[in-house]
Amino acid sequence: MADFDTGTGKTLGIYTSALGLLYLVFGLIEIFGGSGEQVPGDLFGGFALVVIAATYLIGVKGVLRGRHQGLSLLIGGLFLSAVFGVLYLLIIGADGLMYLLGEAEELPGLVDLRPAIWFFILSLPLVYTARKLTKRITW
Amino acid sequence: MGELLRDDAELILAERRYQAIADILESTLTKGEGKWTYTDMFDHVFLHKALGIPIFLAMLWAVFQFTFSLSEPFMVMIGMIFGWLGGLAEELIANPHLASFVAGGIFDGLGSVLVFVPPIFMLFLALSLLEDSGYMARAAFVMDRIMYKLGLHGRSFIPMMIGFGCNIPAIMATRSIDNEKDRMITILVNPLISCGARLPVYVLIAGAVFGAKYAGTVIFSMYLLGMVLAIVMALVFRKTLFKGKPSPFVLELPAYVVPTAKTTILHMWERGKWFLVRAGTIIFGTVIVIWFLSVHPWAATAGGEMIGNSYIASLGHFLEPIVRPFGWDWMAAVALLFGFLAKEVVVGTYGILLGVEEGAVGASLVSLGLFTPLTGLAFMAFILIYVPCVATIGVVAKETNSYRWAAFVVVYLVALAFIVSGLIIGIGRLLGFS
User: Which chain A residues in 47-106 lie under 8 Å from chain B, judged by CB atoms?
Assistant: First the structure.
């Protein structure tokens, strides 16, 4: 028995799969040495992306079936996306402050936006749908 | 039954009891939409069999990235203030003895420790957020699965987490462990959990030799190394000194809550203020002794200008053969010796011995060739493992009711520090690092 509309579940599931795969690919790239300035090699940073990917992807089946179990994993993935997206944004802010203090050569620009920030922005549409589906749920 | 199933009878009974409850609930209760709460949903993720531990590790890594990367500009600001004050003191104070004391002893020595107020408070802010939200209890729960298999008690994980702040309350928290063997093992391995006092040393060395980009990752590795060593040593103690099985762990999980700014900041302050208290007492006292030894004999050192002729250099050169195989010099020997009193003193010692502004201590460590990435990593590992501060040793003696156990902790930790740092240097050199 579905806990929420399976039509919504299908849309959510497809979006979540795409997002999960993006996290997985970029996570693996970071783990295996990175590629260019925007995707730097970062073992633990890459590991974190793979963990987010796994959270999303494990939840896909449940989301497609309209089950709360799947929705939980989607929300968990969103939470982790937010933690890492906001963390990297704060780090960019700190880098900007270092520039103002004369400790960095240039202001951080678009090139310094790590994939986790872009993916966090891409995750935001899910927040709206997840919020709608959990309206009646309490703490 | 225990022998038949090769498992602990009490644990089997507990598992069967909970299984019976789950079976009854499954056949009598239908969970509809209204039955799910956010706590259920988050627990489904954070306590997930496959995801629980990776999520915990990722969260821990985020904590250390947050701590190191965000505190950097604030550290620079504090360094600038102390550097400016030191310069002002040298300019305005006519008496060379007093000028050296204020600029070298107070501003360079104590200042180089106080520079680390931001990362320490940020670490405690992040840990308070995790604890106040209810996540930390889940972390203990997911880690119990591994810990039990390794022969450790699940409740041991909570003192380990407290140990990230300070080993003293962490060791005192072992009182909640009923089984004496489990408690003893937890006390003996707790000093391996990296406390906040080690953080300034990691930030200084990792920032200097690995650069800002990788420092957060290296610092996180040190915390992981501490946890791995604690688990390995617990296993060793379980197999040798305290044979038997750990008792089962029952933990009531609190509901998740959104932490309020007020309580989080209060918790951060409660945990972080000890650093300021220590800075004003034991650290201040020790850096004054180090400053005195570094500028005397006054004439021979030309008022601290020729530190190689000082008492502290003589002491350092005497101890240097012990640390030379690791690629460290006499300054490291002195820093480690005084670090026995409080780990933050290691940073203060370098601040005084190098005689540079607070912000420039790290750069000097590299430009003077005192540390390479390999020797720096080994030094951080040594700092992590070798004797915890003197206060922690005192608490071990008190909690075990035995000075012998306290002495045992000192001996095994020093031996382990030499082994691990030696392995890092040996393997690193084999791989072609210098």
Answer: 47-48, 51-52, 54-55, 58, 68-69, 71-73, 75-77, 79-80, 83-84, 87, 90-91, 94, 97-98, 101, 103
